[in-house]
Design brief:
- The protein is of the alpha/beta class and 176 residues long.
- The chain has one domain: Glycosidases (TIM Barrel, Alpha-Beta Barrel).
- It contains 3 helices and 5 strands; from the N terminus they run βαβαβββα.
- Strands 1-2-3 form a 3-stranded parallel beta sheet, with helices on one face.
- Helix 2 links the parallel strand 2 and strand 3.
- Helix 1 runs parallel beside helix 2.
- The longest helix has 20 residues.
- The chain is globular and about 50 Å long.
């Protein structure tokens, strides 16, 4: 009944990137799935813009508009992660991406946003929904498999796994 009447306890959403739009359609700009790429922002290996400030803006916008607690249910980066011969995976790009986004979440909380939850995407490497590939890796844990289903499927903890463990243990206080 409450849901039917539009009453919710919180708002959840996914955040990965921002895109742009433009009034002058005659100008040529690089397109994305949802709009135009912002040329002023860095991008991932897959061309998705990295915009932690956009997350802070969105958190403030949602909270000011709806006055409901917020939960980020997906936030992360797809990257080409390589397993070294010793089994280590040094996914520094993922750590930097998550670190920047967690920092702006902390700033949004200082702004007054009631952010009650966060889930990084993903715990374990999975097949990419956007490309159908396994080489686009999202997880904190590497799965030994390729785009064709070959591999041992053994799991290896990436550097980001150990970094994120410290973040969780410190309730977001230790980000370095």
């Amino acid at each position: 009944k409450d849901f039917k009447e539009g009453i919710v306890d919180f708002i959840s959403f996914s955040y990965y990137r921002t895109d742009c739009s433009q009034a002058d359609q005659k100008k040529s700009r690089e397109k994305t799935n949802f709009g135009l790429k912002n040329p002023l922002l860095d991008a991932t290996q897959w061309g998705w813009t990295i915009d932690p400030d956009g997350l802070r803006w969105l958190l403030n916008e949602f909270y000011n508009r709806y006055e409901k607690p917020l939960i980020i249910v997906e936030n992360g980066i797809g990257a080409y992660d390589q397993k070294e011969e010793d089994g280590t995976i040094h996914d520094i790009e993922r750590i930097e991406y998550l670190k920047k986004h967690i920092k702006v979440m902390k700033e949004a909380i200082k702004d007054g946003v009631d952010l009650i939850g966060y889930t990084c995407w993903s715990a374990v490497d999975i097949v990419s929904a956007s490309t159908g590939e396994f080489k686009k890796r999202y997880g904190l844990i590497y799965v030994d498999a390729d785009d064709y289903g070959h591999g041992s499927y053994k799991r290896y903890k990436k550097d980001s796994f150990f970094w994120y463990k410290k973040v969780i243990e410190s309730n977001g206080e230790i980000l370095d």
